[in-house]
Amino acid sequence: MVHNLKVDFHTHIISEDFLNLAEKYSDDRWPVLDHTCDCGAKIMIKGKNFRDITNQAWDYEERLKDMDKEGIDIQVLSPIPVTFSYWADPEKGLEMAEFQNDFIASTVKENPKRFIGLGTVPLQDVDLAIKEMERAIHELGLKGIQIGSNINGKNLDDEDLDRFFQVANDQDIPLFVHPWATLGGERMPRHNFMYMIGMPSETALAAGSIIMSGMLDKYPNLKICFAHGGGALPYLLPRMDKGWTVWPHIRKTEKPPSHYAKQLYYDSLVYEEINLQLMVDRFGVDQIIAGSDYPFLLREVPSGKVVDQLMTLRNEEKEKIHGLNALKFLNLNIEEYLERELEAEQTTK
Questions:
Q1: How far is it between the farthest Cα atoms of the chain?
Q2: Which of 42, 47, 287, 307 has the fewest CB atoms found within 10 Å of its own CB?
Q3: Residues 251, 253: Cα–Cα separation, whole Å
C-alpha cells in the first residue's frame, strides 16, 4: 500500500497573547511579543528586535491554509527556542514553560487530526523539568519535549542533567534537540552567522556530547532527534571516529561514535540532495524525519522537498521519511493515522 501521509516534524508556534514576564518581573531579558500589525510581530529582548515573525507563528488557521497548499497532513508544534529562558530563576522558567505547554496543548485540541504537540521544560532545575515533562505528557497529552542544545553553557552530557534523561528513557518520552545560545556567539553578529554557521555547529556539539558520553549505552531506550539534519555532525563523524581510535583516554563508549549516531534521529532540513544522501549514508533512512522549520525564512517549502528530489531513495523509503518515521519516533499508532489518511482521501473523492 502506498502511504502518502506527510508529517512536518519541525515547526514552531507562539501564542498571539504571549505572556509578558519582562513587565511582570521588571526584567527585559525575557522575550516579549511586540505586535506591529495583524500580520506580524517582533520578538523583543532587552528592548531590541531579536527577530521578526509573521502571524503564521500564532494563527493556526493561516497554518492550516499553508499545510493544505503544501500537501502537509500533520504539523508537529514546538516552541520558538528563544523562549527556553534557561537563564531565568527556575520557578519563573517553570511559569514560562507551563504557559507554552498549555497553549500548545489547547492548539492541538482545536484540531487534533492536523496537529501534534511538543512541550518545553525549565532544564535549569532538573526536578522542576521532570515534573513539568510528566505533566506535559501525561496530563496535557503532548507527545514529546523540545530541549535546547545546551543549558546555560552546560553540554547535554553534564551530570546535572542525567536524571532528566533517565526519566525520558524510562518513560519512553521523545526529545527534540534544537540549537540555541550557540557557541561562539560573540563572533556571529554579522552576516546572520548565528543561523547559518552557529546553529549547525552548536547542534553538532550537542549531538557529539551525547554520542561520546556513553549515555546511549546507559539509556538504550532514549529517543532523541536533532534539528537541521544534525547540523555539522554528518560531516564530522569520520573525524570523531578517528579521535575515538587514537585517544583511548577519551573513550566512554563500547563502540565508535558512528555506531551511536545511527541510534539518534535527525530532521531532513538540509536543503540539497547531496546533504541528504550523506545523512542516509551515515545514519540510515529509518533515522531521518521530514521537517521544515515552519514558519521562518530559512524553512524548506514544502517540508520534505529535498526528500522527493533525492532519486536514490525508493518510494517506500520516502514514505518513511515523509511521515512514518515521525509517528514511530513519537510513539503514535501508525495504523490509526493511516486510516485517517485513507478516510480523508475518500472524503475528497
A1: 63
A2: 47
A3: 6
